[in-house]
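Our preliminary data section would be incomplete without showing what the modeling component actually yields. Below, a chain of 98 amino acids is followed by its predicted structure, encoded as tokens that our downstream tools consume directly.
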Amino acid sequence: MAKEIEPQVFSIAEFCVRNRLTLPTFHKLQRTGRGPRMMRLGHVGRISLEAERAWREKMEADSNSEAALAEYQRRRKIMAARGRNGGKKNRGIARFQR
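Predicted structure:
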């Protein structure tokens, strides 16, 4: 039996599936400079296995940093100040509560 070889280069869609990202999230990460290193093969963007590993390590380090913790606490404080529903309006509910 032949052993299956793991691919060394991934398309954007394959990378997103492997890392459970949506395409919009991937593109948002790229725009903000937090996405993985990419290489261009013709007009197609590819992500190497090494770039994927480096990106994952960077994301883990960023999520465990003091800045990430401070941002998390800041957002929790904002949501608490907005109330239980996070500042969303309860449209249409009042007419059913007569």
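The chain has a mean pLDDT of 85. The longest strand covers residues 44-48. Preliminary results of this kind motivate Aim 1 of the renewal.
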